[in-house]
C-alpha cells in the first residue's frame, strides 16, 4: 500500500531538526499509485556538514541538558549556580578561555547581595569587597559634601552601602561554586548553531576538540551585547549608541579627591565618577571626554591630563585602561519560545549608578527560579512568560533613567551647561546637607540599591495601575526575617500577634510554612496581617486574618503553583 514515511515519526536526534524541515514538504505529496516513497535520515546531510554523527537513526544526541547557558560572565554564572542549586542540569559555554582577568564591572548593590545570601555565597563576596559608605557629589575640583548612603541603607537592607569588587573576582567566586556543585564550564567553546522548536533546543557547540551536538529543554543567552543567541533567534535590539567616549581606568596612588568613597563630579564638558577599590589610593576612575575635530579615540595620557586639568585628580599608575561608547538598548522581548535573554544580551545602558551588572544578576535569579519551577516542580510552561513580563519593564525603566541622566551630565546644550555650571553648585550643597535629615531619605538608597523594584502580581493590579506599598515588591527587611528566605520556596509571613486559628487555617489551606516575626515600626508591613512570599523574596499577596487563606490560594493559582494533595479548599 502506498505510504510516506513522515519525518515526525523519526526518533529524536539533534541532527534531525533541519532534516525534518527540509523534507516536511514530502508530506504534502499525493501517494503514488504504483510505489511507495520511503526516506531515511541517512539520505541527508546533518547540520555538522556530513551524515549524522550520532551512529545512526536511533542514536541519542552527544550531550543533553535541561538548560544551555551561552556566556560565562557574572549573569550566566549566577544563573548556572542558581539552577544547579535547585537541582536543574545545566551546561555553560563561553568562548573565553577562562574567567575574566580585568576588573570591568565592580559595583554590587544591596539587592544583589541579598540574592547571593539566599544562594549561600554572600560571605565570599563580602570578605573580598571594599565598602563605599558615602557618596560625594561636586563640580570640577569642588566637593558639595557627603551623602551617607551606608547610614541611609542601614534600615533598608542587611547590606548597606555599595560594595565594590572586581568582575574578575566575582566570576572566580561563581566559577568555584559551580565546580563545588559539580558543573564544569566549557571554556573556549562557542555556540555556532541554534534551532528551537516546541520540543526543545538543538545547538552546535564548537571547541578545541571539534563540533558537538547539544540538546536542551531551554537556552539562555547571557552572551553579552553582541549576543549570538539574540541574533540567531532574530530578536531586535532596539535603542541608540551615544556619541560620547567613556574611558575607564583602574588607577593607583590617586590624589585630589577622597579615595574611600564614591565621588561624582560634573564639569562644563566633562563628567567623572570614582569608586574605591582598596588601600593605597586604588580607585576606579570612569569619565567622559568630548572629542574634538577628527579625533576618534581617547588615549590614557589624554585622559590623565584632562583629569588633572579639570578635576585636579592625579595618580601614579594604572593597571587597566579602556574606552568604549555607551549604548542604550533593550531587546524587543526577553523570551522567544524556549530561548531567553538575560544581562547585557537583553539590555545595555550607561554604567552611571552601578546598575548594569546588578540588573543582569537579578535577571538570572528571577529566571533560574522560574525554570526550576517548570523543570522540577510541574509548573505550567506558560508561567515562564512572567520572566519577560517582570524583568523587561525593569530594563526599560533603567535604560530610560540612565539615558536621561547621562544626557543631562554630558549635554552641550546651553541650558544644560548653565544648569551644571551655575545652578547645581548653588542647589546641591544645600540638598546634600538636608537630605540625610529627611524622613524619606532611606528611599534614595532603596532606588539606588534596586530594592524598590516592582512587579505586577495580578492582571487586576496591572489593569488598574495600582501599586501597593508592599505587594509586588521585595519583602521589607525587619532585621530578622531574611534568614528563612534561604529555603528558596513559597512561604507565609505574619508580623506581630495573630489569632492562632487564622494561622492554622492559612497553613492548612495553602500547605506552606507560616513564619511569625515581631512587629517593627520601620517597615510598611501591617501588624497582624499575613504576607505570601515568593521564592525570590517578593511579596505576592497580603491579607488580614480570615481573608488570607482564600486570597493566597487565588494568588498561588495565578502564579501556576501546583496544588498539593494535603491542601484543603477554602470554604
TrEMBL record:
<protein>
    <submittedName>
        <fullName>Monooxygenase</fullName>
    </submittedName>
</protein>
<keyword id="KW-0285">Flavoprotein</keyword>
<keyword id="KW-0560">Oxidoreductase</keyword>
<dbReference type="GO" id="GO:0016709">
    <property type="term" value="F:oxidoreductase activity, acting on paired donors, with incorporation or reduction of molecular oxygen, NAD(P)H as one donor, and incorporation of one atom of oxygen"/>
</dbReference>
<feature type="domain" description="FAD-binding">
    <location>
        <begin position="65"/>
        <end position="400"/>
    </location>
</feature>
<keyword id="KW-0274">FAD</keyword>
<dbReference type="InterPro" id="IPR050641">
    <property type="entry name" value="RIFMO-like"/>
</dbReference>
<dbReference type="Pfam" id="PF01494">
    <property type="entry name" value="FAD_binding_3"/>
</dbReference>
<dbReference type="InterPro" id="IPR036188">
    <property type="entry name" value="FAD/NAD-bd_sf"/>
</dbReference>
<dbReference type="InterPro" id="IPR002938">
    <property type="entry name" value="FAD-bd"/>
</dbReference>
<keyword id="KW-0503">Monooxygenase</keyword>
<dbReference type="GO" id="GO:0071949">
    <property type="term" value="F:FAD binding"/>
</dbReference>
Amino acid at each position: 500500500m502506498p505510504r510516506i514515511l513522515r519525518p515526525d515519526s523519526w526518533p529524536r536526534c539533534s541532527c534531525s531538526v533541519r532534516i525534518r524541515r527540509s523534507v516536511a514538504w514530502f508530506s504534502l505529496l499525493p501517494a503514488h499509485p504504483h510505489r511507495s516513497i520511503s526516506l531515511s535520515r541517512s539520505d541527508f546531510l546533518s547540520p555538522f556538514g556530513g551524515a549524522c554523527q550520532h551512529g545512526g537513526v536511533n542514536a541519542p544526541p552527544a550531550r543533553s541538558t535541561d538548560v544551555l547557558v551561552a556566556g560565562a560572565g557574572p549573569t550566566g554564572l549566577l544563573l548556572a549556580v542558581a539552577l544547579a542549586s535547585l537541582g536543574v542540569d545545566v551546561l555553560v559555554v563561553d568562548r573565553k578561555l577562562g574567567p575574566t582577568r580585568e576588573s570591568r564591572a565592580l559595583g554590587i548593590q544591596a539587592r544583589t547581595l541579598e540574592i547571593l545570601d539566599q544562594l549561600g555565597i554572600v560571605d565570599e563576596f563580602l570578605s573580598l569587597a571594599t565598602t563605599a559608605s558615602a557618596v560625594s557629589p561636586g563640580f570640577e575640583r569642588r566637593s558639595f559634601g557627603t551623602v551617607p548612603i551606608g547610614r541611609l541603607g542601614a534600615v533598608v537592607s542587611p547590606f548597606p552601602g555599595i560594595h565594590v569588587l572586581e568582575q574578575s573576582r566575582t566570576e572566580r567566586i561563581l566559577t568555584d561554586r559551580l565546580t563545588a556543585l559539580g558543573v564544569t564550564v566549557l571554556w573556549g567553546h562557542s555556540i555556532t548553531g541554534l534551532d528551537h522548536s516546541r520540543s526543545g533546543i538543538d545547538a552546535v557547540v564548537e571547541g578545541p576538540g571539534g563540533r558537538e551536538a547539544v540538546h536542551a529543554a531551554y537556552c539562555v543567552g547571557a552572551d553579552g551585547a553582541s549576543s549570538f543567541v539574540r541574533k540567531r533567534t532574530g530578536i531586535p535590539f532596539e535603542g541608540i549608541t551615544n556619541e560620547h567616549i567613556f574611558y575607564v581606568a583602574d588607577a593607583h596612588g590617586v590624589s585630589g579627591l577622597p579615595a574611600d568613597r564614591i565621588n561624582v563630579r560634573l564639569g562644563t564638558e566633562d563628567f567623572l565618577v570614582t569608586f574605591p577599590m582598596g588601600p593605597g589610593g586604588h580607585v576606579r576612575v570612569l569619565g567622559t571626554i568630548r572629542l574634538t575635530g577628527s579625533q576618534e579615540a581617547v588615549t590614557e595620557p589624554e585622559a590623565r591630563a584632562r583629569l588633572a586639568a579639570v578635576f585636579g585628580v592625579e595618580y601614579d599608575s594604572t593597571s587597566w585602561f579602556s574606552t568604549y561608547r555607551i549604548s542604550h538598548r533593550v531587546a524587543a522581548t526577553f523570551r522567544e519560545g524556549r530561548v531567553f535573554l538575560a544581562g547585557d544580551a537583553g539590555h545595555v545602558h550607561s554604567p552611571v549608578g552601578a546598575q548594569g551588572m546588578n540588573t543582569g544578576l537579578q535577571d538570572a535569579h528571577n529566571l533560574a527560579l522560574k525554570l526550576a519551577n517548570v523543570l522540577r516542580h510541574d509548573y505550567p510552561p506558560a508561567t515562564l512568560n512572567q520572566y519577560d513580563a517582570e524583568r523587561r519593564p525593569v530594563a526599560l525603566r533603567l535604560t530610560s533613567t540612565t539615558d536621561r541622566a547621562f544626557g543631562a551630565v554630558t549635554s552641550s546644550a546651553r541650558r544644560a551647561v548653565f544648569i551644571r555650571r551655575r545652578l547645581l553648585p548653588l542647589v546641591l550643597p544645600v540638598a546634600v546637607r538636608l537630605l540625610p535629615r529627611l524622613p524619606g531619605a532611606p528611599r534614595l538608597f532603596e532606588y539606588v540599591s534596586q530594592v524598590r523594584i516592582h512587579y505586577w502580581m495580578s492582571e487586576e493590579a496591572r489593569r488598574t495601575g495600582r501599586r501597593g506599598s508592599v505587594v509586588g515588591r521585595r519583602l521589607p527587611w525587619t532585621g530578622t526575617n531574611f534568614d528563612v528566605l534561604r529555603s528558596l520556596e513559597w512561604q507565609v509571613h505574619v508580623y506581630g500577634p495573630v489569632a492562632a486559628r487564622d494561622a492554622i487555617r492559612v497553613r492548612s489551606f495553602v500547605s506552606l510554612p507560616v513564619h511569625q516575626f515581631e512587629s517593627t515600626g520601620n517597615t510598611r508591613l501591617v501588624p497582624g496581617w499575613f504576607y505570601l512570599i515568593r521564592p525570590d523574596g517578593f511579596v505576592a499577596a497580603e491579607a488580614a486574618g480570615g481573608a488570607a487563606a482564600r486570597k493566597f490560594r487565588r494568588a498561588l493559582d495565578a502564579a501556576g503553583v501546583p496544588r498539593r494533595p494535603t491542601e484543603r479548599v477554602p470554604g
